[in-house]
Design a protein that fits this description.
single chain, alpha+beta, 12 strands
Length: about 180
């Protein structure tokens, strides 16, 4: 019975799934916040929303091959996690402790990744450092760089990017149904 119906069923499922993806609507959601340089030259990461129960945040500097050569990790002091909205790379946020220090400068990396863990989810975001730095110094404190989307204020991010049919971007701590 499986032989008789299995192959046609797999073909039907594959065709149905292929029809779900189009150039106007990505098949996968992207979890991104924003990035900016503060007045001291430090990298600030906005998670896209307030994350209420972050257990850990891992920030990696990557070389041109995508291999991590330095890692900064902070973990919550509470087993239930701690709230987090923004993080300045290298500065331990309130409610967290440093598990691994960062020894290298973020500007020297080819790219960076950030992984956020909550009690139920894990999300990962990626930033091309040279793309970001091309305009970062010219931007004001209200502007955030969203990878592959350009510069937006937090209000524009919410209104124009989050959950829109053609973009499907969500904050790092918010899982889309």
């Amino acid at each position: 019975m499986i032989r008789r119906y299995g192959c046609p069923l797999l073909i039907a499922v594959a065709l149905a799934l292929a029809g779900c993806s189009s150039a106007d609507h990505p098949a996968l959601n992207s979890y991104e916040g924003g990035y900016q340089v503060d007045s001291s030259g430090r990298l600030v990461v906005w998670l896209g929303a307030e994350c209420t129960s972050v257990r850990s945040l891992t920030y990696e500097l990557l070389d041109v091959d995508g291999s991590a050569y330095d890692t900064w990790r902070v973990t919550s002091k509470s087993p239930n996690g701690a709230p987090l909205t923004t993080v300045t790379v290298g500065l331990v946020p309130a409610g967290f402790r440093e598990a691994d220090p960062l020894d290298s400068g973020w500007r020297d990396a080819d790219s960076q990744s950030i992984r956020l863990r909550t009690p139920t989810d894990q999300t990962l975001a990626h930033l091309d450092v040279s793309d970001f730095l091309a305009e970062a110094e010219e931007r004001g404190p209200a502007d955030w760089y969203v990878p592959d989307q350009g510069w937006h204020t937090q209000a524009e991010y919410q209104a124009e990017l989050v959950g829109s049919d053609k973009v499907d971007i969500y904050p790092l701590c918010q899982v889309h149904d």
